[in-house]
């Protein structure tokens, strides 16, 4: 599964879920695609990989 992301410089990319977690931790992405639409960092609720394993439904959209 690959997830579409937008970097801080406006570029788009497709990344694996574990890479998205890394990019979010490093604060280099501004948004990523979920099934419900684009999640915007700083506006939408985004889980942190430092909180441990997430046990809920996957909402990030694969491409």
The tally of beta strands, per DSSP, is 4
Shape category: globular
* Parts with pLDDT < 50 across at least 5 consecutive residues: none
Main beta sheet: 4 strands, antiparallel
Over the alpha carbons, how many angstroms does the gyration radius reach?
Answer: 11 Å
Distance between the termini: 7 Å
Strand portion = 25-35%
Name the assembly state. single chain
Overall mean pLDDT stands at: 87
Give helix and strand order, one letter per element, not per position: EEHEE
Q: Can you count the helices?
A: 1
Helix coverage percent? 10-25%
- Count of domains: 1
The secondary-structure class comes to alpha+beta
The spatial strand order of the largest sheet comes to 2-1-3-4
Describe this structure in words.
- The protein is of the alpha+beta class and 63 residues long.
- The chain has one domain (3-51).
- Helix content is 16%, strand content 30%.
- A four-stranded antiparallel sheet has the order 2-1-3-4, covered by helices on one side.
- The chain is globular.
- The protein starts with a strand and ends in a 23-residue tail after the last strand.
- The model has no long low-confidence stretch (mean pLDDT 87).
């Amino acid at each position: 599964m690959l997830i579409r992301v937008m970097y801080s410089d406006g570029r788009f990319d497709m990344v694996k879920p574990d890479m998205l977690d890394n990019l979010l931790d490093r604060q280099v992405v501004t948004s990523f695609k979920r099934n419900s639409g684009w999640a915007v960092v700083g506006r939408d609720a985004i889980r942190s990989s430092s909180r441990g394993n997430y046990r809920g439904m996957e909402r990030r959209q694969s491409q």
